[in-house]
Write a structure and sequence with these properties.
This protein is α+β, with helices and mostly antiparallel strands. The chain has 2 domains: 7-71, no CATH class; 74-161, no CATH class. Helix 1 packs across helix 2 and helix 4 packs antiparallel against helix 6 (133-154). The relative contact order is 0.06. 59% of the residues lie in helices and 8% in strands. The chain has a 4-stranded mixed sheet. Residues 9-68 form the PHA accumulation regulator DNA-binding N-terminal domain. It holds the Pfam family PHB_acc. This is Polyhydroxyalkanoate synthesis repressor PhaR.
């Protein structure tokens, strides 16, 4: 597919066919997925109404990608959490949080590739990045934990998924607060 200057408009017809107006060719969802991977920006419009249906078409691409491989990107637990936010007070916050998280993830991935390439040179290992996946998994775990913490800040009535262990300093802080309350109570009694 030839790259065209300006915005690429894909028209979707009632027969479910997709037409790339930039290249004057019919395309498939797989072709659109390849365009996304190449970084080509496009919008999808309903040919009859002119409505922007990019979101639903991209969602359909994700659905097909998830269905055709056993290596799914969206674990069931994530999908359940995502569904739980529909209609919730957090629904407005989740899209921007996910967008920022994916941007940060992409930037970290680029940095990691550069660091591995500098350290080991250009090898099949650095191209595939199979060995450094543990580092990426750790970053994902940290990002997930940050996500949970952010959601709990916005929704104080959420049930926590894991109760953090009490640290010894917390017990000391509680004892100090109790002592301060006792002192305050003594002062109030004297009045």
């Amino acid at each position: 597919m030839a790259k065209v200057d300006g915005e690429i408009v894909i028209k979707k017809y009632a027969n479910r066919r997709l037409y790339n107006t930039g290249t004057s060719t019919y395309v498939t969802l797989e072709d659109l997925a390849k365009m996304v991977k190449k970084g080509e920006d496009f919008t999808v419009q309903d040919a009859k109404t002119g409505d922007d249906i990019t979101h639903s078409v991209l969602t359909q691409i994700i659905f097909e990608q998830e269905a055709k491989t056993n290596n799914t990107l969206l674990p069931i637990s994530f999908l359940r959490q995502l569904i739980g936010y529909y209609g919730d007070q957090m629904q407005m916050v989740v899209p921007s949080f996910l967008e920022h998280s994916m941007k940060a993830f992409t930037e970290q991935q680029v940095q990691m590739r550069e660091q591995v390439t500098r350290a080991f040179g250009e090898t099949p290992l650095t191209k595939n990045l199979q060995a450094p996946m543990q580092m990426m998994e750790e970053q994902v775990k940290r990002n997930t934990e940050m996500f949970h913490q952010a959601m709990q800040m916005f929704s104080p009535f959420m049930t926590p998924t894991a109760v953090p262990e009490k640290k010894p300093t917390e017990a000391k802080d509680i004892d100090e607060l109790k002592e301060q309350l006792r002192n305050l109570q003594n002062k109030l009694d004297k009045l």
